[in-house]
């Protein structure tokens, strides 16, 4: 079981099954939607997904007909995407989860449109907190 919530905590979700098809998507749409170099997404069966709190705070944006992005209207956190042509599953933004994720990403997708500053194999310093010099 996985539990998660949006940034403000008004929308809470529960997944009772596995997460499949996890990818790091570098397409321009995912970059714009997440505000980052890529979005990490995975499929969840609709029957195993529940918005346990805050359904009234979810709002939807349809970028393409039948494809909906659901996010918290209060804090803007992307929660999941749905596709009317495949109602049996949703695509979850894995950053919403508070639980440890046991499944692992299988690929970086749309790398031809990745952000030009994103170096997938960069050996950058790693810090447990803020980088040195930041207050």
Keywords:
10 strands, 5% helix, 1 helix, mainly beta, 3-stranded antiparallel β-sheet, 135 residues, 7-stranded mixed β-sheet
Verbal overview:
The protein has 135 residues and is mainly β. Helices cover 5% and strands 39% of the residues. It has one helix spanning 28-34, and strands at residues 2-5, 12-15, 20-25, 39-45, 49-53, 58-64, 67-72, 78-83, 89-93, 107-109. A seven-stranded mixed β-sheet has the order 6-7-8-9-4-3-10. Strands 1-2-5 form a three-stranded antiparallel β-sheet, with no helix packed on it. A hairpin with a 5-residue loop joins strand 8 (78-83) and strand 9. The longest helix is centred in the N-terminal third of the chain and has 7 residues, at 28-34.
Biggest sheet strand order reads 6-7-8-9-4-3-10
Sheet with the most strands, sense and barrel status: 7 strands, mixed
Q: Please state the overall shape, judged from the principal axes of the Cα atoms.
A: globular
Q: What portion of residues is helical?
A: under 10%
**Mean of residue pLDDT values:** 92
Number of alpha- plus pi-helical segments: 1
Share of β-strand residues: 35-45%
From the alpha-carbon coordinates, what is the Rg to the nearest angstrom? 16 Å
Q: Give the H and E element order.
A: EEEHEEEEEEE
Structural class: mainly beta
Number of strands: 10
As residue ranges, the low-confidence spans are none
Distance between the termini: 37 Å
């Amino acid at each position: 079981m996985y539990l998660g919530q949006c940034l403000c905590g008004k929308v809470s979700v529960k997944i009772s099954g596995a997460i499949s098809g996890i990818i790091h998507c570098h397409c321009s749409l995912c970059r714009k939607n997440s505000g980052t170099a890529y979005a990490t997404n995975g499929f969840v069966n609709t029957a195993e997904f529940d918005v346990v709190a805050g359904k009234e705070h979810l709002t939807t944006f349809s970028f393409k007909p039948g494809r909906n992005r659901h996010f918290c209207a209060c804090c803007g956190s992307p929660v999941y995407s749905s596709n009317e042509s495949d109602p049996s599953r949703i695509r979850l933004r894995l950053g919403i989860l508070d639980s440890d994720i046991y499944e692992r990403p299988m690929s970086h997708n749309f790398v031809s449109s990745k952000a030009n500053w994103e170096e997938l194999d960069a050996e950058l310093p790693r810090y447990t907190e803020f980088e040195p010099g930041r207050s």
